[in-house]
Amino acid sequence: MSEPITEGTTTVPDIDLPGDAFDALLAAVSTVSGDEPSEGPAIDFEGLRVESRGETTVVEVDGERFEAGSERELHEVAADNAAFVTNWHFFERVAGEGTPRRAFVRWLEAAEERSVGERYAALATGVVREWGQLRVTATVTDRGERRYDVRHLEDAGVPIDELDRHEDPRDARDIVTFDPDGRYRPLKTAPSLRGGWVFSALDHREMYEVVETVYPATVANWHREREGRLDVDHWRETMGRQSGIYGVVQTWDRGEGHEHVNWVAEACCADSQCLKRREWEYDNETDLDVDGGDGVFPCREPCSLVVSAARKWTRLEGETERTYEFELTPSEKEQLEALIDAVADGRTEEIREADLRDPANRYRARFLRAKRLDADGNLCGVPTDDE
Amino acid sequence: MQSLVILAHGSHLNPDSSAPTYAHADTIRASEAFDEVRTGFWKEEPHLREVLRTVEGDEIYVVPLFISEGYFTEEVIPRELRLAGWDVAEWDSDGISADQATLVAEDIGREVHYCGPVGTHRAMSDVIVRRAESVTDDPDVGEGFGLAVVGHGTERNENSAKAIEYHADRIRERGRFDEVRTLYMDEEPEVDDLPEHFESEDVVLVPLFIADGYHTQEDIPEDVGLCEDYRDGYDVPTAVDGTRIWYAGAVGTEPLMADVILERAADAGADLNDALATVRETTRVATGD
Q: Does B84 share its domain with B128?
């Protein structure tokens, strides 16, 4: 989902100017109004412009001009325009500069596309973004502070009381370790995140930690990509630097094309297996023929699971093909194909025990085994190697 | 802004592999010695390749949570972090004396302090002893006890045995345990024959591994004879051929490991205030009074 969703109606909320935001504003003004005549405004950020001119502070909000001759008057102006002041304070003093974290919180509320007024109106009811299987809702309190709710996409409409509530971002570690069936998740970006939980009322750092725990380094890579400096390492480079027990993967590329890498990408990197959008190709000049997926965050090089799998396939694919002869009925041939599909799509658990129409049904598979595999497990009694 | 990055192996198969890394990171976070503490893995995420880009600080200390100096600390990690100009000579180590190297990590274009692994730091000896205290639930354990320090062996890396001998020597010199011996999984003297190598009735067995997994949970308990099949479990202690064996599991799960991580960073110049004392205190074995 590229567009943020705004929930509910939109009117700019009343914000009580918090003391820390006003103190920060005063500090900014006093920093540039020392002995030296100031060069330019103390603040110039998203519709808020504050400039010190001698005893007077000139404040412009969305082009409207105010003059304050005292701290009390300045407070009055700031309080009347608290959305702008708290917006400046949050991004320029709380979120800080230049980090992927800042870029992410700005993206969450579409800060580059919407004015402060539009944003605060939207934040008053909640702005929703999706990040992998996460649903992040940004809101603003009546003191202008950002608050975030993070939950599973599937729990979008679930009342908060019906979810397990968490406050410590580190709790997310337990959530990401096992899938809904209790199996270990070796790949954090696999689309197997379990639901039923919510982190609510987080500040922006806590929210960021949850996202970083669920999908490590995805924000950093997304940020680099947006700035046009994502460092992609293609298949050839990545395999080329492997060593130790993984060094063997280099021998899989034999200058005979990249079809084997197409198969790897189709097997491991499809959206059904990983939510990262594959940006790596065979090499700098040779794209793979398989789609990279639609994920919001990029994949910049074959991951450790792909490298491990490639090691296995390098050995298996080193074997020479040979011709076997099997006697099968047409339905049995199709059943073997269906069994491969069922395992590859992770569908075996959902096939009902008595659904004999499904070729991957357990009884159907057991019947095939009873009929076609001999005591040594050889299909149709045909040995794998010559006797 | 001072950052700590802890690097570990991790696993595609074993969910417990990363648990000690996270636990020690949390202990160090609580000590507030660093503005941020990040973790990176060879087999989990964030990968070694991408962990540095998740770091915001400008004074970055990288500590490998590995037992010995060798393939991972000298080749894999420097390569994956893209440490410009890395050469193992930077550590000027005899296999157990790595300190740190300050190099630019090309991934982020900033300098990092790349420290030696926790396993060869002198403070690791204290963790082995603390592990013995933990498993016996006795902060004064020693008299009447033997200590077996167990390692994988030299199959792939001779420094692996060096680290084990180093700590065993140091602990032996303290005279706290009646006897201290080193045993190995794949070379002589073998852990399988533990009772033959000890005269003490009670022996604490501490495997020098970072995380519990196949070796510490399946191999060693079966090889030593604590159980026929690891799935059946075993008691602590378990008597084998007349020796009561107190099996401690991976030393890396001991909370005091956080202290060694801090020591590594401190040796590389990190400003820790009183974090070392705090961590030593908070990870202590209760005396029971």
A: no
Tokens 């500590």 locate to: B63
Q: Which of A11-20, A124-133, A234-243, A301-310 has the lowest mean pLDDT?
A: A11-20
B97 contact A CB<8A:
no
**Residue A251 maps to a domain:** yes
Range of the domain at B30: 2-120+254-282
CA angle A112-A80-A24, nearest 5°?
70
Residues 6 or more apart from A340 whose CB is under 8 A from it? none
Of A99, A177, A178, the CB nearest to B56: A99
Length of chain A: 387
Residue at B246 is within a domain:
yes
Mean pLDDT of chain B: 94
pLDDT at B208 over 80: yes
Minimal Cα–Cα distance from B13 to chain A, Å? 7
Q: In 3-state terms, what secondary structure has residue B177?
A: coil
pTM: 0.95
Query: Which chain A residue has its CA at the smallest distance from B25's CA?
Result: A170
Domain that holds residue A78: 19-92
Q: Cβ A186–B43 below 8 Å, yes or no? A: yes
- Output the DSSP codes for B26-82: HHHHHHT-SSEEEEEESSSSSBHHHHGGG---SEEEEEE--SSSSIIIIIIHHHHHT
Domain count, chain B: 2
Residues of B in Cβ contact (< 8 Å) with A305: 12
Amino acid at residue number A83: A
Residue pairs spanning A and B at CB distance below 8 A: 58
Averaged pLDDT of chain A: 94
Same domain, A101 and A208: yes
A345-363 residue pLDDT tens? 999 999 999 999 999 999 9
- Structural domains counted in chain A: 4
Encoded tokens for B49: 């390749």
Nearest to A303 among B14, B47, B71 (CB): B47
**CATH at residue B215:** 3.40.50.1400
